[in-house]
Specification:
The protein is of the alpha/beta class. Helices cover 36% and strands 21% of the residues. The chain binds 5'-deoxyadenosine and iron/sulfur cluster.
Length: 461
């Protein structure tokens, strides 16, 4: 979500004549796009801001801004901790950034624009204060022409007790389906081959159009499948309760939709899930996994887990380990619980698991998940899969080996597995068949297939 917001803010500033620069000295404005999901992310922003204290004294004309979730979460507190910040803009006001920077440059002083809090008015009023920022994409302003995020939903109404998102991103709102389709068509006309639909609980998507027709996620996917030029459709991130059969059938039947589902479980303990107010039981999550495996055989499923949530015992953590072993996720993102002020979790429970225990649990779960990922990847050896080449690999860039006719490239399979290979940078943006010859837990190593290859070796990837 933040990557898309950054892209759109950069595009809107480019329209005003700004350019991106890597150099702080060259910049007229420095903007931080921020996250509030864990405390560490906020601390990082304050640490970066702290490093600009002297810089701002030496360069008072430069505009320093904080945008995104932390701007909404801390609001004026940011001015207190870093008084040299000029601009604070919440995720619902990003479209105002060019105008606000202009005001600051014209000497109108500090600017702050944020949305209403969840208790600061009626629902309609609060919704209006969280404006989605999705201008039709200007092709020249896009960082990668062949891939694009498309926002289909903003906000969240699930209110998991640990989570700050419903407070900072506001009420859940599904975007008008016709606008989404128009945006996808527009992107396809400008060389986009892969779109990723995004929302906090993207599979809960619901919207009623001008004709009174109700659109669900499966309806939307069906329409997007028909767009010429689009070859892959992904969607993140999913809420277990809304993984309905019609959606799974759409994933199975629509060739462009990636057989890849990211569905955070968060915990394998009944009591912890209840405390988290996730709204499902472990049995229901298991049932969902069975339905996925039955309906979309070969699909890759990934998950998120929080370890060390308030009161989590060793036995309860072990239940999470059991769930990971049973579900065999493609990969899992594992986080140490971080108490967030303003959430129900912070209000109701003690953050009582010591940091070293959270760390141990995090490492242990990661180790188990890595072993599963490695074993699954090893099964891919010898198979040929279609890979969308995304760019030059980070390793090649770090080593300065990023020029010439043969460099290390990186891409993804239809199931979202990362593949690296040797190739020509001209192949970036293309989908190529590749045979896998080696693997690590998170990366497959492949070779571009130049000759015809027996169909028995083709896998879903
Ligand atoms: N502490 C730790 N992890 C969190 N997440 C959300 N809130 C918190 C928190 N307070 C994790 C969840 C979510 C992912 C995006 O971040 O696992 O799925
Ligand atoms: Fe946060 Fe829960 Fe909403 Fe996900 S579903 S954004 S974890 S409140």
């Amino acid at each position: 979500m933040n990557m898309l917001d950054s892209e759109l803010v950069v595009a809107s500033l480019r329209k005003q004549g700004y350019q991106l620069t890597d150099s702080i000295e060259e910049a007229d404005a420095l903007l931080f796009n921020t996250c509030s999901v864990r405390e560490q992310a906020e601390n990082k922003t304050y640490s970066h801001l702290g490093k600009l204290r002297q810089f701002k004294i030496d360069n008072p004309e430069k505009v320093i801004g904080v945008m995104g979730c932390m701007a909404q979460n801390h609001q004026k507190k940011i001015f207190q901790r870093a008084p040299y910040v000029d601009l604070i803009v919440g995720p619902g006001q990003l479209h105002q950034i060019p105008e606000l920077i202009k005001k600051i440059e014209q000497g109108e002083g500090r600017q702050i624009e944020v949305s209403l809090g969840r208790r600061d008015g009626g629902r309609e009023e609060i919704i209006r204060s969280h404006e989605s920022f999705d201008p039709l994409r200007d092709p020249e302003m896009r960082p990668t022409p062949f891939q694009a995020f498309i926002r289909i939903q903003i906000g969240c109404d699930k209110f998991c007790t640990y989570c700050i998102v419903p407070s900072v991103r506001g009420p859940e709102q599904g975007r008008n389906p016709h606008d989404i389709i128009a945006e996808a068509k527009h992107l396809a006309l400008h060389d986009t081959v892969e779109i990723t639909l995004i929302g906090q609980t993207v599979n809960s998507y619901k919207a009623v159009d001008q004709d009174g027709k109700l659109w669900r996620m499966s309806d939307l996917l069906g329409e997007l499948q028909e767009i010429d030029g689009i070859q892959r459709i992904k969607f993140v991130t999913n809420y277990p309760n809304d993984m309905t059969d019609d959606l799974l059938c759409a994933v199975r039947d629509l060739s462009k939709v990636s057989p890849y589902l990211h569905v955070p479980a968060q915990s394998g303990s009944e009591r912890i899930l209840k405390r988290m107010k996730r709204g499902y039981t472990v049995a229901q999550y298991r049932d969902m996994m069975h339905r996925i495996r039955e309906t979309v055989p070969g699909a890759a499923v990934s998950s998120d887990f929080i370890v060390g949530f308030c009161g989590e015992t060793d036995e309860e953590f072990q239940m999470t380990v059991d769930l990971v072993e049973e579900c065999r996720f493609k990969n899992s993102f594992i986080f140490k619980y971080s108490e967030r002020e303003g959430t129900k979790g912070a209000e109701m429970y003690d953050d009582d698991i010591p940091h070293h225990v959270k760390k141990e649990r995090n490492n242990r779960l990661l180790e188990i998940q890595n072993q599963i990922s490695l074993e699954d990847n090893q099964d891919m050896i010898g198979h040929t899969v279609d890979v969308l080449i995304e760019g030059i690999s980070k390793t090649a860039i770090r080593k300065g080996e990023d020029t010439g006719p043969s460099v290390q490239l990186t891409g993804r399979t239809h199931c979202d597995r990362i593949v690296v290979c040797e190739g020509n940078p001209r192949q970036i943006g293309h989908i190529l068949p590749m045979t896998i010859y080696e693997t690590s837990p998170h990366t497959l190593f492949g070779e571009v297939v130049t000759e015809a290859c027996g169909p028995e070796l083709f896998g879903l990837g």
